[in-house]
Design a protein that fits this description.
By secondary structure, this protein is of the alpha/beta class. The chain contains 10 helices and 9 strands. Helices cover about 35% and strands about 15% of the residues. The strands form 2 sheets. It has a 5-stranded parallel sheet with strand order 7-6-5-8-9. A 4-stranded parallel sheet has the order 2-1-3-4, with helices on both faces. The radius of gyration is 19 Å and the shape is globular. The relative contact order is 0.16. It binds N-carbamoyl-L-aspartate (NCD). N-carbamoyl-L-aspartate (NCD) binds next to helix 2 and helix 6.
Length: about 300
């Protein structure tokens, strides 16, 4: 069964093309009429989410499925039900797919072991966020004019990911897809916000200037305070001074450099207002593309064998 658990196992080429066909369809008609099915896709969110959940909900609607949003606070999860039992319960009610966001790394894999329906990982702890990485890749693919997705089309491009790498599932999944497409990826954070073991295939630095110098893409990340042990970051002001993506720091980048952020952004912390809202920012394009990519991922998981 085609689960969507990690970035490495995604059929990237197929998903980029599917996402692009959703973009074209929805650009022609933003409110298509859809034949509804008498079937449900469960969105099981054990952590807060705005854009990921809204995009998956819209993806369900586009495919004619009813999205059933289940949050930890308002379900039997709050009564101590295990993840496995929640998944078995949803299977017994014939849900066609289950989208899971969970604070623990590996939770979607555990769900996949007991599920009759495909599982889509919408972010597990500091581990993986495959559909976010895919939407980031799709955003760059469009930006660079849809090069052959089977080629190393990001080769020669320097991509700086700056922020709380240690707790970021977005950084990990992105690293997989960006390097596979040939990019040179730089990870930049203060020492306490880098992983204990260096991540493979990436350059690592504590110096934001070194990271962004001659970059084609700068991706800022939020400080994931909900996953952070106390005292990891002694001074927010020092963090702003040394790592914030602001106009001054962007003087070092390549002329056509673009700025990305998975959201939610903390204005004035990891990114300045001016940059977040500026001409180089692809942040809202990423959000929009998130809908196309979730529609593509859900379609793939539900009908893997059908041609796109
Ligand atoms: C990210 C997440 O939840 O992993 N957001 C998202 O899905 N767009 C990043 C974050 O929370 O900072």
């Amino acid at each position: 069964m085609p689960h969507v658990l990690t970035a490495a196992e995604l059929p990237v080429e197929d998903l980029l093309r599917r996402a692009d066909s959703w973009r074209q369809r929805l650009t022609e008609n933003p409110t298509p009429s859809v034949q509804p099915r008498a079937a449900i896709v469960a969105l099981l969110f054990y952590e807060p989410s705005t854009r990921t959940r809204a995009a998956f909900e819209q993806a369900c609607v586009l495919l004619g499925y009813h999205p059933l949003s289940i949050t930890a606070e308002a379900s039997s999860i709050a009564k101590g039900e295990s993840l496995q039992d929640t998944v078995r319960t949803l299977n017994a009610q014939d849900v066609q797919a289950i989208v899971i966001r969970h604070p623990q790394a590996g939770a979607p894999h555990i769900a996949a072991q007991v599920s009759d329906a495909p599982i889509l990982n919408a972010g597990d702890g500091a581990h993986e966020h495959p559909t976010q990485a895919l939407l980031d890749l799709y955003t760059l693919w469009l930006h660079y004019g849809k090069p052959d997705p089977a080629s190393r089309w990001l080769s020669g491009r320097k991509i700086a990911i700056v922020g709380d790498i240690r707790h970021s599932r977005v950084a990990r999944s992105n690293l997989t897809l960006l390097t596979r497409a040939g990019a040179e990826v730089w990870l930049c954070a203060p020492p306490a916000l880098l992983p204990d073991a260096p991540l493979p295939n990436a350059h690592t630095t504590h110096n934001a200037e070194e990271a962004v110098r001659n970059a084609d893409v700068v991706m800022a990340l939020r400080l994931q305070t909900e996953r952070m042990a106390q005292g990891l970051l002694p001074s927010l002001n020092a963090y702003r001074r040394d790592y914030q993506i602001h106009a001054e720091r962007l003087r070092l980048v390549k002329p056509h450099c673009v700025v990305m952020h998975p959201g939610p952004i903390q204005r004035g912390v990891e990114i300045s207002d001016e940059v977040a809202d500026g001409a180089q920012s692809l942040i809202l394009t990423q959000v929009r593309n998130g809908v196309y990519v979730r529609a593509a991922a859900l379609e793939y998981a539900l009908y893997e064998s059908e041609p796109s």
